[in-house]
Amino acid sequence: MAEEKLELRNLDQGLLGGKKQEEKTAGKYERIYQPCIAELVGTTFFVFIGCVSVVENLEAAGRLQPALVHGLAVAVLVACMAEISGSHFNPPFTIAIYLCGGMRLAMVVPYLISQVIGGLLGAAMSKLITSPEKYTNVSGAAFVLLKSDEQLTGALCGEIFMTCLVTMVVLLGAVNGKTKSPMVPFLVGCTVIINILAGGDVSGTCLNPARAFGPAVMAGYWRYHWVYWVGPIGGGVLAAALVRLLLGDEKIRIVMK
């Protein structure tokens, strides 16, 4: 049991699955500060690209264009920065990876803060370069799809289920030893694309509170904003529970050893 706990603590905290816990010789910058900077920078550019794609291409976008932009941005950023921070760029991913033993508790809050700040910076950058008229028309790419309480149950469940799916791909592809794959950036990017194509008209397919928070602040749009925190975080926790209880290998699974 002691050996299993030690192995869990040494699991990769990233999305590529190839990097172990920082070596003892690594400096404090590489162990603590650089991963947080990478999370901030990665989240910034993900939110920036996502917001610009919505603001500047709303009329002709449909669902295909934002789906491809968000999914490809995830794949590229994950592949580039996984060896620095693990390329979470999303609070539910960080929470779920921690719950499955893939990172240290001490890094969870710094990662979450970095991601939220990155979301703000990315939204501010998109506001700086886009047309003011277009920006106003789409409320800065904030999630404005929900207009009434009748839509609420479907949207909340949609955010939970779709975030659960993409988080499960992250956990099985990066944290679970039996199913780790170097294809994780591609798999996660494809899952984001699939989710947006399938559920874009249900909730807007946020899946990431940092992506929702930045534009909401910049545009001052807060209607039903809580859905885009409760839904994705709930989906991330649900995915962690599935891996911990049913899908994980013996090192991660806590029942039926």
Automatic annotation (TrEMBL):
InterPro entries: Aquaporin-like, Aquaporin_8, Aquaporin_transptr, MIP. It is found in: Basolateral cell membrane. One of its GO terms (cellular component) is basolateral plasma membrane. The chain crosses the membrane at residues 36-55, 67-84, 105-125, 152-175, 182-200, 226-247. Its main location: membrane. It holds the Pfam family MIP. One of its GO terms (molecular function) is water channel activity. It is a multi-pass membrane protein. Keywords: Cell membrane, Glycoprotein, Membrane, Phosphoprotein, Repeat, Transmembrane, Transmembrane helix, Transport. Belongs to the MIP/aquaporin (TC 1.A.8) family. PANTHER family: AQUAPORIN TRANSPORTER (PTHR19139), AQUAPORIN-4 (PTHR19139:SF34). This is Aquaporin 8. The gene is aqp8a.2.
